[in-house]
């Protein structure tokens, strides 16, 4: 059953870079050889770029899959696929949440090694490796979806709320 979102976690660029480098370190220790990386667009493209650099892999392709509109998951749409069964391919995505995206990836590339930087419990067992697990009811805010902005002091916004309404408003 779908869980309501009760928390958010804002991932910074630095945190994402550190976590992805940690993933690179694990993959190097794993000693498998990859001939190419396939990034699951769009979220997988930033970690894929970092892994491509750290692992010295210059052949990078995309598997274009979309299913979320805002925070609602709809039908899985494969907009662009890749050839082959994924032998020697490292598939990279930012996150496995329900696991639906990675299950689709595995139907297309059953022989690939599949990693994400983040997982939630329902999506954990479909990936081969990940770095950080977050609760199912937590929405991750990625740095490319957010920006720092000024917020008014609480005292001022509270004062504004208690101000009587006038016709000038
Ligand atoms: O495990 P799941 O429940 O399938 O969710 C995880 C997927 O959802 C997000 O992609 P999204 O479909 O939002 O597209 P985007 O990467 O273009 O933002 C995220 O980048 C993963 O690919
Ligand atoms: N940004 C973002 N996209 C998602 N797609 C599925 N789950 C998530 C999430 O927690 N955060
Ligand atoms: Mg995605």
TrEMBL record:
<comment type="pathway">
    <text>Purine metabolism; GMP biosynthesis via salvage pathway; GMP from guanine: step 1/1.</text>
</comment>
<feature type="binding site">
    <location>
        <position position="140"/>
    </location>
    <ligand>
        <name>guanine</name>
    </ligand>
</feature>
<keyword id="KW-0479">Metal-binding</keyword>
<dbReference type="GO" id="GO:0000310">
    <property type="term" value="F:xanthine phosphoribosyltransferase activity"/>
</dbReference>
<comment type="function">
    <text>Purine salvage pathway enzyme that catalyzes the transfer of the ribosyl-5-phosphate group from 5-phospho-alpha-D-ribose 1-diphosphate (PRPP) to the N9 position of the 6-oxopurines guanine and xanthine to form the corresponding ribonucleotides GMP (guanosine 5'-monophosphate) and XMP (xanthosine 5'-monophosphate), with the release of PPi. To a lesser extent, also acts on hypoxanthine.</text>
</comment>
<feature type="binding site">
    <location>
        <begin position="42"/>
        <end position="43"/>
    </location>
    <ligand>
        <name>5-phospho-alpha-D-ribose 1-diphosphate</name>
    </ligand>
</feature>
<keyword id="KW-0460">Magnesium</keyword>
<comment type="pathway">
    <text>Purine metabolism; XMP biosynthesis via salvage pathway; XMP from xanthine: step 1/1.</text>
</comment>
<dbReference type="InterPro" id="IPR000836">
    <property type="entry name" value="PRTase_dom"/>
</dbReference>
<comment type="subunit">
    <text>Homotetramer.</text>
</comment>
<feature type="binding site">
    <location>
        <position position="94"/>
    </location>
    <ligand>
        <name>Mg(2+)</name>
    </ligand>
</feature>
<keyword id="KW-0808">Transferase</keyword>
<keyword id="KW-0328">Glycosyltransferase</keyword>
<keyword id="KW-0660">Purine salvage</keyword>
<dbReference type="Pfam" id="PF00156">
    <property type="entry name" value="Pribosyltran"/>
</dbReference>
<keyword id="KW-1003">Cell membrane</keyword>
<feature type="binding site">
    <location>
        <position position="97"/>
    </location>
    <ligand>
        <name>xanthine</name>
    </ligand>
</feature>
<feature type="binding site">
    <location>
        <position position="140"/>
    </location>
    <ligand>
        <name>xanthine</name>
    </ligand>
</feature>
<feature type="binding site">
    <location>
        <begin position="93"/>
        <end position="101"/>
    </location>
    <ligand>
        <name>5-phospho-alpha-D-ribose 1-diphosphate</name>
    </ligand>
</feature>
<dbReference type="InterPro" id="IPR029057">
    <property type="entry name" value="PRTase-like"/>
</dbReference>
<comment type="similarity">
    <text>Belongs to the purine/pyrimidine phosphoribosyltransferase family. XGPT subfamily.</text>
</comment>
<keyword id="KW-0472">Membrane</keyword>
<dbReference type="InterPro" id="IPR023747">
    <property type="entry name" value="Xanthine_Guanine_PRibTrfase"/>
</dbReference>
<feature type="binding site">
    <location>
        <position position="97"/>
    </location>
    <ligand>
        <name>guanine</name>
    </ligand>
</feature>
<feature type="binding site">
    <location>
        <begin position="97"/>
        <end position="101"/>
    </location>
    <ligand>
        <name>GMP</name>
    </ligand>
</feature>
<feature type="binding site">
    <location>
        <begin position="139"/>
        <end position="140"/>
    </location>
    <ligand>
        <name>GMP</name>
    </ligand>
</feature>
<protein>
    <recommendedName>
        <fullName>Xanthine-guanine phosphoribosyltransferase</fullName>
        <ecNumber>2.4.2.22</ecNumber>
    </recommendedName>
</protein>
<feature type="domain" description="Phosphoribosyltransferase">
    <location>
        <begin position="13"/>
        <end position="149"/>
    </location>
</feature>
């Amino acid at each position: 059953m779908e869980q309501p979102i009760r928390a958010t976690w804002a991932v910074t660029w630095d945190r994402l870079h550190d976590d992805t480098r940690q993933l690179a370190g694990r993959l190097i220790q794993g000693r498998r050889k990859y001939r190419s990386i396939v990034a699951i667009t769009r979220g997988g493209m930033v970690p894929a770029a970092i892994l491509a650099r750290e692992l010295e892999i210059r052949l990078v392709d995309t598997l274009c899959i979309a299913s979320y509109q805002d925070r609602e998951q709809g039908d899985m749409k494969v907009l662009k696929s890749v050839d082959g069964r994924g032998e020697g391919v490292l598939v990279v995505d930012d996150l496995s949440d329900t696991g639906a995206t990675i299950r689709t990836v595995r139907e297309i590339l059953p022989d690939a090694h599949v990693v994400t930087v983040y997982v939630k419990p329902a999506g954990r067992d479909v990936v081969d490796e990940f770095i950080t697990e977050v609760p199912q009811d937590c929405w991750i805010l990625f740095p490319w979806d957010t920006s720092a902005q000024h917020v008014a002091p609480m005292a001022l916004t509270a004062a504004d709320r208690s101000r009587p309404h006038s016709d000038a408003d």
